[in-house]
Amino acid sequence: MTKPLKLAVAGVGNNISALLQGIYFYRQLIQEQGESSLPGIRRLRIGGLGVADVEYVAAYDVHPNKLGEDLRDGALASPNNYPRLAVELPPQGVRIEQGLTEDGAVSRSAIVKSMVDSGAEVLLYSLPTSLQWAASEYANAALEAGVAFVNCTPERVARSGQLMQAFEDAGLPLVGDDLASHLGTSVVHRALLALLQERGLTLESSYQLNFGGNEDFRNLRDRGESKRESKLNALAQAGIPVGAVEVIPSAGYIPHLRDNKVAILNVEGRGWADTPVSLDLKLKVQDSSNAAGVIIDLIRIAAICRRLGQPGFPLAAAAVLKSPAHGHGQLTAWMIEEAEQELDRLASKA
Ligand code: NAD
Prior knowledge:
By secondary structure, the chain is of the alpha/beta class. It has helices at residues 14-33, 71-76, 108-118, 132-145, 161-169, 185-198, 215-222, 225-236, 287-308, 333-349, and strands spanning 5-10, 45-46, 49-50, 54-61, 96-98, 122-125, 148-151, 174-175, 202-212, 245-253, 260-270, 276-286.
């Protein structure tokens, strides 16, 4: 049996509430009906790790409602507003510790020591978008602690040549940047634009507007620039002329939407004889389930690569990232699938 992966988390927000509760949801389902088919899972096993094989060993936050609480209680505390799933959720036996702050009140070495003592294999970085200083500081803490790093945010970590080199030199995986959510606006938008291209129509203009009622949308309303750039990266991978596309990461924070995200997509094009076509689409999703549905793959990839001694950026992660380390460039779905299978082969021999 594959050992569960030991996870440390920085930022106990909605993503972590969705991940933690979801893992108990699947644990219960596996007990009841086995593992052969699970709803909402992209890959049942990665390198032998199942979706329920996660053990939380450390957690960091700065919010007074969360500090000092057991991870379970912190994940359910306001302002988090991911719904409470109908599953039993025991305390995790992990106290949420004071995270790093920009004024340096907590030293990086304290976080490094805490991670080393916890036996963490992976640090999942899940802070509000736009805190580049924090993303770099937590990545350096992971590096010093000998822990793999997964960046959920659009801040430049895996795309920083310097950090990538340092992780490679230390023999550690570095996974990022920015989640491409399970059925997120980016993947749906990209598929529509690629379809237009494949059918030989001309793209005239397109936009995506995103609305939601969680903290992420509140933050992105005022600090969305790095997310906008990352969302355009996600679209560029299909060779789409992104100059014709406008993306608004948070067109509005609407509290009563809570953790639901609503996206409005519009595509205007020209077809046969230069006549117009117009397409409007509305997508509504549970925003943080959409994140957890890919975080579960990224943390398993990071843990397996660390165990196998495969440093740097794992190609297998590229399918579920908006801004992967070396860009989407010439990456094809086939190359990524090959990388995923190779990871499984290596893990089965280890
Ligand atoms: P959130 O705002 O609910 O949670 C962020 C948490 O980080 C909060 O608990 C906050 O107190 C904590 N925090 C703030 N500063 C901190 C510090 N210095 N140290 C430790 N903790 C600190 O956000 P979320 O919805 O969980 O999203 C997390 C990140 O994931 C965001 O940057 C978001 O843009 C990104 N993301 C989300 C999705 C999605 O589908 N929901 C997709 C892609 C990327």
